[in-house]
Amino acid sequence: MSLRPENAQQARILRLLRGNGPHSRAELGEAIRLSRSKLALEVDRLAEQGFVESGGFAASRGGRRSSIVRLSSKLRFVGIDIGATSVDVAVTNGELDVLGHTSAEVAVHEGPTTVLGKAIELVEKLRAEGVATDVHGAGIGIPGPVSFRDGVPVVPPIMPGWDQYPVRETMSQEFGAPVLVDNDVNLMALGEHHAGVARSIDDFLLVKIGTGIGCGIVVDGDVYRGVSGSAGDIGHIQIDDDGPICTCGNIGCLEAYASGTALARDATAAARAGRSAYLAERLEKSGALSAVDITAAVAAGDPVAVQMLRGSGHRVGQVLASLVSFFNPGLVVIAGGVASAGHSLLAEIRSVVYRRSLPLATGNLPIVLSELADAAGAVGGTRLISDHVFSVPRGTEER
Amino acid sequence: MSLRPENAQQARILRLLRGNGPHSRAELGEAIRLSRSKLALEVDRLAEQGFVESGGFAASRGGRRSSIVRLSSKLRFVGIDIGATSVDVAVTNGELDVLGHTSAEVAVHEGPTTVLGKAIELVEKLRAEGVATDVHGAGIGIPGPVSFRDGVPVVPPIMPGWDQYPVRETMSQEFGAPVLVDNDVNLMALGEHHAGVARSIDDFLLVKIGTGIGCGIVVDGDVYRGVSGSAGDIGHIQIDDDGPICTCGNIGCLEAYASGTALARDATAAARAGRSAYLAERLEKSGALSAVDITAAVAAGDPVAVQMLRGSGHRVGQVLASLVSFFNPGLVVIAGGVASAGHSLLAEIRSVVYRRSLPLATGNLPIVLSELADAAGAVGGTRLISDHVFSVPRGTEER
Question: Which residues form the HTH marR-type domain (chains A, B) (predicted)?
Fold first, then answer.
């Protein structure tokens, strides 16, 4: 099924049922402000299209008992979050309750065929477990710049083979359903907005500190992508004319100081220079250090690792302080692998932002860790695609 | 008159007539997608309320001649732009054609009674010249933070007596019409969007470099104000831990380097130190230097002044480079008194932004000077209030 609602009333009914669960026809008519007869017409059309089904009768409110309308129990949305080293897949029903969630290790630099193949395999696995029948739409997150309109990655760094690869078209044919492709950080922001720590906030920022650093911008409940889709790409904001060389070829970018990649580089240097026995031991065991090792070192109380993590938080805080003054968000969410190292990073970010940003902008500003953590991207993917499937196709909306 | 349209159709008719001028009933019906009889009903209601009037008959398209509908020629909107040292007033008709425009010198630190009194005097003067009859709404810009919801300034620096002063209420009673109060930079952005260089752009930034420095943010054609109304307040972004003390009490703010106030301070120092004969002569004549003197010195080719202006552009460019990477706008407009010094400032800003921002974000990004210059704020004020008057009151809109 790849139908869409025929008019704005139908779209409103679907979104209401998604957000608030089953309704009696009487409640639905009141909420949508449609007469009983007009509502019946629209609900019947939605039922014919397979969007909704009957769920028995509501308790009587005095007169005739009103029948219950709910989203079809056969609706399935898929969210796919492609990270630098793993793929994460969630399948939900129409209300976006997660029915199945799984992930696998796969490096994004292995190219789109391998990575998307792995994602399809994971969806098949969940299907086989009885979680999914047909797929009615999928939202896919990519760890790099994306043309949202075209559904393709655009010159993504560290992703050989992905530039202009037709991700949306390939996956749409695979699933026989609508697919949208977005930057992974945007999906994480949508996920936190839908079911996480940003549930009640319409204007907020989500900063992901992982292998790279990016920011999801939500304005009035929707992702703001900018005119060429690169909004929120804060990893390459220059914070020092004179700093380390970044993977992008420029000098002194935020990522070159504060990302997981930068931390791994600094941790390796510290281990080799004998400044941290803990890190030296891990380096000797595994031959290379990653952000995970720093997280472990911080948990073990290694002072050099704690210092590095605080340094990362300080740099992120510097950039964020400007963005908070500029954007005046209602919330800042900190997410990503490095953020999972927890409170010393968060404390440093808070300290810099609260000290440096405009008092008016920070007076009421919580800065918190992600609630959904690893699942945020996949959940956001299902939210993105359900927004699309539960809306009137462009050009046919009422004006 | 302080009526508002009764429903979304009426609001759409009014905005269409504002933007595109008189329409025949036939054209209006097509554009709004209403049947002839439904349209007649809404147009008649708008005529009864004094919003529209008949403008004769259109040329026949075969059948009966269709009568022309236009906004009432009696509609008047007022835009008031309060600057640090002057007040600027424009009066427009319903289509926002400027019928009269005037300004007067008055320092904002003289307090709200004096400054608003002067603004009312200017409106009266335009009225006496036959430009205004009744006022149907006014949009007022204030050079400091504003609570848009409450219509009051919020702890504005350099504006003694203005904090929480009921500007909206006072002026609404004075005019007997709806009034909205906003930050002056937001109004300038709206003005450029309505009738200036940003006419066709829905996502852009307007940076004002005057006595202070601020930024108007337009998202999807509307001003983005942030959760506490301070969005765009970029003047106090810290660019150096170790820089000059700012009027706000912090250290190294953008304004402390690059505003008109900072330039006047540096020009005075240069004059006193004998580094610029031109500036020293002006200082001796007038006893104090302002941004205007630097503009004049730049025009006269004084190398010290040109260097200062470039320094200002460099600092603004540094901050803007980050904001462009973050926000990925379709246009950046440079405005304000210091910007009127022209191209050496603009060249420096462009050079820094194009070099430092993400290539994806600058690929298609024009950075240009304001087109409306001094009139942008007042025109934006009339646009803001007409958007409000030509919309359905909250709570009664169709859902």
Answer: 7-53
DSSP string across B336-399: STGGGG-HHHHHHHHHHHHHHS-HHHHTT--EEE-SSGGGHHHHHHHHHHHHHHTSPPTTSS--
pLDDT tens per residue across span A128-186: 888 877 899 999 999 988 989 999 998 887 789 999 999 999 999 999 999 999 999 99
What local confidence, expressed as pLDDT, does residue A32 receive?
A: 86
For chain B, the first-to-last Cα distance in angstroms comes to: 27
Whole-number pLDDT of residue B276: 94
| Res A43: pLDDT | 94
Report the alpha-carbon angle A266-A272-A274, nearest 5. 105
Residue B19 CA to residue B70 CA, distance in Å, equals 11
Long-range contacts of A161-164 (CB under 8 A, 24+ apart): A161/A111, A161/A112, A161/A113, A162/A108, A162/A111, A162/A112
| B219 closest CB neighbour out of A224, A323, A330 | A224
Q: For residues A250-263, give the mean pLDDT.
A: 92
Of A225, A233, A328, the CB nearest to B226: A328
What is the per-residue pLDDT for B206? 98
- How far is the C-alpha of B369 from the C-alpha of B375, rounded, in Å? 14
Residue B396's pLDDT is: 56
Question: Contact, B146 vs B153, CB < 8 A?
Answer: yes
Residue of B nearest to A364 (CA): B228
Residue of chain A nearest B229, judged by CA positions = A328
CA angle B109, B112, B115 (to 5 degrees): 75
Would you call A240 exposed, middle or buried from its count of C-beta atoms within 10 A (0-12, 13-18, 19+)?
Answer: middle
Mean of pLDDT values over A3-11: 89
Mark yes or no for CB contact B360/A229 under 8 Å. Answer: yes
Residue A238 to residue B322: CA distance in whole angstroms:
7
Tens digits of residue pLDDT in A44-61: 999 999 999 988 776 666
Mean pLDDT of A352-373: 90
Q: Which of B205, B215, B326 to mutate to test the interface with A (most CBs of A within 10 A)?
A: B326
Going along chain B from its start, the domains and CATH numbers come out as 8-71 (1.10.10.10), 77-192+376-389 (3.30.420.40), 199-370 (3.30.420.40)
The rounded distance, in Å, linking the Cα atoms of A211 and A312 is 13
d(CA B243, CA A94) in angstroms, rounded, equals 55
pLDDT tens-place string over residues A61-94 = 666 677 899 999 999 999 999 998 899 999 999 9
Residue with tokens 């209602």: A330
Sign of CA dihedral B311, B313, B316, B318: negative
% of chain A beyond a pLDDT of 90: 72
- Maximum Cα–Cα distance across chain A: 81
pLDDT: which is higher, B87 or B144: B87
How many other CB atoms are found less than 10 A from the CB of residue A269? 12
Distance of CA A9 to the CA centre of its chain: 28
Query: Who contacts A367 (Cβ-Cβ below 8 Å, separation ≥6)?
Result: A331, A332, A334, A346, A349, A350, A353, A354
d(CA B262, CA B268): 10
d(CA B196, CA B215): 16
What single DSSP character describes residue B206?
E
Place A397 in a pLDDT band, splitting at 50, 70 and 90: very low
Q: Is A301 left (phi over 0), alpha (psi -120 to 50) or beta?
A: left
Q: Residues B298, B333: contact at Cβ < 8 Å?
A: no
A interface residues, B as partner, C-beta within 8 Å: 12, 32-33, 145, 154-155, 203, 215, 217, 219, 224-234, 236-238, 319, 321-323, 325-330, 356, 358, 360-361, 363-364, 398-399
Helices (H), chain A: 8-20, 25-32, 36-48, 112-128, 167-175, 184-195, 254-258, 260-272, 277-286, 291-299, 303-327, 343-356, 359-362, 376-389
